[in-house]
Amino acid sequence: MALRNCGALLHHGSYARRYASIGASTCPISKNIATATDGYLSRIHTTKSQQDMEKLGERLAKDRQAGDVLFLHGDLGCGKTCLARGFVRKLTGHTQLAVTSPTYLLVNTYGEASDLPPVYHVDLYRLDIVAEQDTVALGLTEAFERGITLVEWPERFDEDSVPKQRLDVKISYDEEDTEIRHVKLQPVGERWTQLFEKEA
Question: Which keywords does this chain's UniProt record carry (predicted)?
């Protein structure tokens, strides 16, 4: 795992790691389903502003539990952090909480809501490849198991490091209007597929 720009980071072993922790969590841990399937379902959303993207994040935060992982795909500036902001604010109950992309910190942790698992906001943009041993060193293996995790630039994971249970959130620009975004939701694995089938 190589950093694209070293910056000022704390180090854990040979790997760069720093958490911006907000509060502490004493929440119960729920186990996610271990068996994965190849089933994909699609949902398409269209947003026309940052506020729309944040509201979509709020909707995705509903009924989340420990072990839930959301991969946020999309180009620079497409709205991944806006979606994460709405998501985190909804889960923590803090509507004015400052939620920024942890580009240099790698992981921001939010855990103020005592009745919820910790929320991890991960940004892998500055890393080249994140292998299985890197997920352990960065604390992501633990995050995937005991927290609710949002990952920007998940393309950095190698194949062996990708969680088998997750929701892929794919954000793209509209071809004609630069203010419009199209968001495609693809459930991966048994738990997410069942959730989408239930809501269909």
Answer: ATP-binding, Cytoplasm, Magnesium, Metal-binding, Nucleotide-binding, tRNA processing
Q: Is the dihedral of CA 149, 155, 161, 163 positive or negative?
A: positive
Name the token pair of 118: 């910790």
pLDDT tens for each residue of 172-194:
999 999 899 999 999 999 999 88
Long-range contacts of 130-133 (CB under 8 A, 24+ apart): 130/1, 130/156, 130/157, 130/158, 130/161, 131/1, 131/158, 131/160, 131/161, 132/158, 132/160, 132/161
d(CA 80, CA 54): 9
Q: 169, 83 in Cβ contact below 8 A? A: yes
CA atoms within 13 A on the CB side of 20: 15
Q: From 64, 90, 75, select the one nearest 149 (Cα to Cα).
A: 64
Q: At what angle do helices 80-92 and 50-60 cross, to 10 degrees?
A: 50
